[in-house]
């Protein structure tokens, strides 16, 4: 499973990398910004995207919008990572095309199982 994980916080990317490096069936790619993620999405296919909502523009919502316009990511599973827990925020993200919402903080060691269950 190829996964793109986008977060502007280096320590979070590092924790995720450490958690996923031992998983033989998950191939993670990391982006430190929405702009970097959009460039990657235009040239590579992924089974799943995990996007941090709160980043400098383009934020996770904009990356989600762009991903859903790309032919190679019409059916890619997109998970939005956010600390916002309101039903209104979740509904907004799902209306934009998110498949799942993963609330922060989450346990990186449980991420592989979560990805397999998508």
From TrEMBL:
Keywords for the protein's UniProt record, in alphabetical order: Phosphoprotein
4-aspartylphosphate PTM positions: 52
Record-linked InterPro entries: Bact_response_regulator, CheY-like_superfamily, Sig_transdc_resp-reg_receiver
Positions of the Response regulatory domain: 2-118
Keyword match Phosphoprotein: yes
BP-aspect Gene Ontology terms: phosphorelay signal transduction system
Alphabetical list of SMART domains matching this protein: REC (SM00448)
SUPFAM superfamilies reported for this sequence: CheY-like
UniProt-listed Gene3D superfamilies: 3.40.50.2300
Keyword Phosphoprotein assigned: yes
Protein name: CheY-like chemotaxis protein
């Amino acid at each position: 499973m190829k996964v793109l994980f986008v977060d502007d916080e280096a320590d979070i990317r590092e924790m995720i990398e450490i958690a996923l490096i031992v998983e033989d069936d998950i191939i993670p790619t990391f982006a430190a910004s929405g702009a970097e993620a959009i460039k990657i999405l235009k040239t590579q296919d992924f089974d799943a995207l995990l996007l941090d909502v709160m980043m400098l523009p383009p934020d996770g919502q904009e990356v989600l919008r762009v991903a859903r316009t790309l032919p190679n990511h019409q059916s890619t599973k997109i998970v939005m990572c956010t600390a916002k827990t309101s039903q209104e925020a979740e509904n907004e993200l799902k209306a934009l095309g998110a498949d799942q919402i993963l609330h922060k903080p989450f346990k990186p060691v449980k991420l592989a199982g979560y990805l397999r269950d998508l």
